[in-house]
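Re-run with default settings, no changes from the original entry. Doing this only to confirm the output is reproducible before filing.
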Amino acid sequence: MLTFFFLLIALLYSSVGLGGGSGYLALMGLFNVDLAVMRPVALGLNILVASIGTYKYTRAGFFSWKLFLPFAITSIPFAFLGGCLNLDGGIYRAFIGVVLLYSAIRLFLTAKKAEERTSTSPPLWASLLTGAIIGFVAGITGVGGSIFLAPLILLMNWASPKETAGISVVFVLVNSISGFLGYMSHAPEFPPQIIYWGIAVIVGGYFGAEYGSNRLPNLLIRKILAGILLVGGAKMFFSALG
């Protein structure tokens, strides 16, 4: 059942230029997956889906090095630093819960923005600071970061919807790799199901990215994802309190 849902999450997320890390975490929280494997699994699946999305979106011409680099310069080292940290189980649950709830709200509120065409350049300092903060959160949680970056870009009118998707998926890839390398210092163990989960997200990520790179961002998909994050985030947060 979880393998099927991973495929579905990868399909939906990749169709809007996201890697799916927050969705995988939400699902693993709902299915009571061991906390010790949640972050490395989310980062690993992120890498698989984002690799496909990077190829699809960049090949379609929806990527800007000029906009991407300032975010990535600071996010990559901070994602590695975040990946090196290991939070207490209760703190991690609460932190993930807050992150998922915030992501759900931002994704829902900016869903309509994804249908509008926008284009202004962000100040360099804003890109560098944003990259550092999001990178650190990405590494410490396993979300990849695009769930924060994409709504921000749309909200601040820093890029068109298609360009936002292209930048976001590459952002996920570099931060997930960096965070994963940082987390390797903990010598993580992966469950045997990771093989099936990996195959599932590759299939879902391929078809999602194929759809997303050839069509306009979908308002309904973003609202569905926001709902998944809301439920998963609420469960993680309240389980930490209880």
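The CA atoms of residues 12 and 224 lie 9 Å apart. The chain has a mean pLDDT of 83.
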